[in-house]
Prior knowledge:
Layout: E1 5-7, H1 15-25, H2 50-67, E2 70-76, E3 79-81, E4 84-89, H3 94-106, E5 111-116, E6 120-125, H4 128-135, H5 151-154, E7 160-165, H6 169-172, E8 181-185, H7 190-200, E9 204-207, E10 210-215, H8 218-237
Parallel strand pairs: 4-5, 4-7, 7-8
Antiparallel strand pairs: 1-2, 2-10, 3-9, 5-6
Helix pairs in contact: 2-8, 3-7
Amino acid sequence: MFEGFYFEFPKLSFLVFVFLACENLCPLRSQMLYFPHISRFGDGGVKSPAWMWISKWLMIVFFIVALMSPVKEVQETPRFVAYSTLIVADSPDEEMRAKIASFIHLRSHDTIALYVPKSVKIPLTRDHKALLSILHQLPKTPNERIDYTVKEFLSTQERPWIVIFSDHPKTFVHSIPTQIETSVVSQKEGRVWMQKSNREHAVIPIAEKSVRLEYLYFYPLFFGFIGMLIYLFGRNQRGFL
Length: 241
């Protein structure tokens, strides 16, 4: 919880001892501008309640903590330029669905779309869990060919990639955009191809892992003001102002 938490100016904590010394050693001074409860003067039994003493010291401590500038180091995860990948499945059976699932796990940084001709069209998404849950429910639709409508998925993407899972790609693929990189995966070369292709299509890091400072001084500052308001309210109620 407190990992990476520290104060920028910890030496300012000595101010607590300054206030403690002042409370015990400094002479009492008051500007007698008005006397809202004159009858209380001379009454030696009048004492401040404990909650006023607590609110006063909470105010002092929180203000000093705010001056010490508490910060927390936040680890920022690296960012990548990944691929926008369209997975096209030809008559997906149980074995093909398992290979597609393995491929999705490998491409954790990609946005992925899924297309089964004349059956399923799932647009690009980073929610791979939802995509995997839909994958297990894909219908088997044989004799449906892919056509030029696949361009709708990747028309505006910077790094598009079409991956076709099919045992008969020559009859399955009717027309695909020639300007988009396309890979065809057969049942025989599935796992070997995926490992090799994953290395060849690596993501590009655009930001290394870094540390960001999150300043937290406004929290003690807020509670310090609350303590001050409670303390001033109590003094005013008892006629000490």
